[in-house]
Specification:
With about 450 residues, the chain is α/β, with parallel strands linked by helices. It is built from 14 helices and 18 strands.
Length: about 450
């Protein structure tokens, strides 16, 4: 088979990693793919920017469309990010009859349904392993390795920036702002970190994982998102006392009423393996009906870890070039005409346990009033604790923090209860609420 020629859109951290891996492991990759894979062109934003990579034999241009329109190129690898130029480039590549590999989670989560439809109509492949969890082969594992299973739920630490911040707050007793500044200095967080710390990046990835796990269309707009900016060192300390660690978790669960899709800070029992995934590492826990729980751990970002997944996709695409399109692995794991229309549950309808922290005036009857509200809403309390040292005074009266864990209850009921509690004249400030998942 003749050499397969590749065009890159983007030559940043991941793009240079792809070239490095392809050159260093050229013989091994060719043996696996059945053909040599060669990068012949790459589009960049700034031609004058120095790059620490051997680009000999590669045409460097600042015009992405000159790459996707090049008749010599068989596969376009999109590494630009976002859904502007990247979307235009992918659509044009498909229109030109070229297979596509992308590391762009936003592109797949927001436009994947249309992109895959176009690819199928032309007998082309769009591969996106590197769009979720960097170097961890989680897409292939769920789509192919677990294809005998009915996936019941999955939970993932799928944003390294948030995980790094929470790890440093947990292990060093530091506050959020200090750790965020450090993460930015180390290059783990962007100058504008909102995409990571508010949960959008994880929501993009969860959208993709849920689709291939449950056989549903991509529905990013229905994912509940909550970031980590309101997590305090105090909450982390109390969680540890109760035997939990706080992680920013993406969770998708199949229920009798529909599918839960949610990203938020979560208390996880400290003995769980996933609770001990620290710093910038990623992990995804998948529960199948036949295999039980399986955990996938590794680097969720970085030049060569992500390039590992990109090149693995290239090998898969090269293998399928001569394959009948009807016999290829479907983009979203299930045959396109069998995708389910299962409802995505609003966050108010989910059932889980909760950690609550509230500031109160230390006066008789306060706890009784709070527990009465919970009782009226059918919410059962598992544990109650009062902060040993007070929080100062309010109008001459002592202030203390009450921390409690609930049993499983419907979120809508809990929200109603919190509203009533916050209206009590003995409660000051807002009630802090974090969800608790045992993942068992």
């Amino acid at each position: 088979m003749k050499a397969v020629k590749i065009g890159l859109l983007g030559l940043g951290t991941v793009g240079t990693g792809v070239i490095s891996v392809l050159k260093r492991n050229a013989d091994e990759i060719a043996r696996r793919a059945g053909s040599e894979i060669t990068v012949v062109a790459a589009a960049v934003r700034d031609l004058s920017k120095p790059r620490d990579i051997d680009s000999s034999g590669i045409r460097i241009t600042d015009d992405p469309m000159s790459v996707v329109n090049d008749p010599e190129i068989d596969i376009v690898v999109e590494l630009i990010g976002g859904d502007g130029v990247a979307l235009d480039g992918v659509n044009k590549a498909l229109e030109n009859g070229k297979h596509v590999v992308t590391a762009n989670k936003a592109l797949i989560a927001l436009h994947g349904n249309e992109i895959f439809k176009t690819a199928r109509s032309k007998g082309l492949v769009v591969a996106f392993e590197s769009a979720v969890a960097g170097g961890i082969p989680i897409i292939k594992s769920i789509r192919e390795g677990l294809s005998a299973n009915r996936i019941e739920w999955l939970a993932g630490i799928i944003n390294g920036t948030s995980n790094y911040i929470l790890t440093q707050m947990t292990e060093g007793g530091r506050n959020f702002d200090d750790v965020l500044a450090e993460a930015q200095a180390l290059g783990y967080a962007e100058a504008d970190p909102a995409f990571d710390i508010e949960g959008t990046d994880a929501a993009h990835k969860l959208t993709i994982l849920a689709s291939i796990a449950f056989g549903i269309s991509l529905q990013f707009d229905k994912v509940y998102q909550e970031g980590i900016t309101n997590i305090s060192s105090e909450d982390i300390t109390y969680a540890q006392k109760f035997g939990y660690r706080i992680k920013h978790l993406g969770l998708a669960r199949r229920t009798d009423r529909g599918i839960e899709l949610r990203v938020h800070p979560t208390l996880i029992p400290e003995q769980k393996l996933i609770a001990n995934v620290n710093d910038v590492m990623n992990a995804v826990l998948v529960q199948g009906d036949a295999v039980g729980p399986t955990l996938y751990y590794g680097a969720g970002a970085g030049s060569e870890p992500t390039a590992s997944s990109v090149v693995a996709d290239l090998v898969d695409v090269v293998r399928t070039i001569t394959t009948d399109p009807e016999n290829r692995v479907p983009h979203l794991a299930f045959q396109p005409d069998t995708l389910s229309d299962l409802a995505i549950l609003p966050i108010e309808e989910i059932d889980t346990a909760y950690y609550l922290r509230m500031g109160v005036i230390n006066r008789p009857g306060v706890l009784a009033a709070i527990t009465e509200i919970f009782g009226n809403k059918g919410i059962s309390i598992e544990t109650i604790s009062q902060k040993e040292n007070g929080d100062g005074k309010e109008d001459g009266e002592d202030k203390v923090s009450i921390i409690l864990l609930t049993h499983n209850t419907k979120e809508g009921h809990l929200c109603d209860a919190i509203k009533q509690i916050e209206q009590l004249d003995t409660v000051y400030g807002s009630v802090t609420r974090l969800r608790v998942e045992t993942l068992s």
